[in-house]
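Example 3.2
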Amino acid sequence: MKRCLIGLAILILLSSMGCEAQDNNGLFYMGNLHCSQETLPALDAANEAKLASDGVYDLEVAKYVGVNAGYFVRPWLANKRVSSQKDALSRGEGNTIRIKGFEVKYEALGLEIETLFVPQSFAIDPESSYGQKIDIMPLSIRNQILEYWAKNAYADVDNARTYFHVDANGGTADCTEYTAADDCNGYACVVNNPESVDDAGKCMPMCTVETGCASNCFVDSDGKHQCYGPHALPENWCDTGAGDIGFCRPTCWDTGYCPPVTLPDGTVALEYDCVDGYCYPKGTQVNPHKGENLIVTIKAIAESSNGDDFTSNSYIFNLRVCKGCLLSFDGSECCLDTQQLMEYLEESQGFECNFDDLAQDYQVDCSWFTDCAKYLCDEFSCN
């Protein structure tokens, strides 16, 4: 009787192990490869796979790069016999699997984006893996995000604009380069002679990312007027929302404090919150510069040798989409010619695979793009 009980227990144990860890042939999504990898992931110092699970994508940089500047992921797919996984939905029958495309779904608070299907056509042999580059931020998806921002950015905030002073005739206030920060509430002062900080001008009633806001002018120890351009040590930044023309707002890198916008009669027109060094209208929930956090779910759609369709397991990728958060203005490449700039970019980390990748994950400088540099590089001397 004892032997029977022991035998029964072993049989039950073996049976339960088989149910939980049976070998299955299947298609498995194992991670997101770096752009220079094709079939195997790079390894870190501990021989662990270096796979990307999150990223940042800048729509402002994408505007300069062009219509092909998407966000590219490289799904690492395997067709092999592995232990059972809860999310591995279907079997490959130990044969070659043909990938028909990728289903991409997006989740974000308050933002609805259509499911994307990225068609593909390649095969993965048994006991093999493969990494395929796909674009999860094509122009159609980008436009949906921009449309959402255009409708909702600051929509929940009263008086969510920066006031600048106007004179009795409805024109903008008089100013000089030196006084623009105060007289124009941070907007630039347009003067006939930009070489002189003392020449009179008028406050500019708008700003763009390229032109920036007021110059940073001061009197040095010798009593001379000195100015930094609007992108060097900026006291104000241009918040364009979802468009190209925007409002000048303060920065709060050093103080952590954002002074309110006060009208000449003393009325407080707008209060700010300091977030990561930038002043945003108080209570703002939707701000393109800060960005939108998207949860991106990717599945491979496949076909087995007998013609049956099935899917891989799901892969979750976290992507923050912003407008201007990766764009810097240090002018480091203003004095390079086109060939020198291309050589610099080819040697720079992150851009060795494709120049379309410029809009993702890494800081890029305005001076790399002609449409942006023509304003910025006027502030630098290349002698």
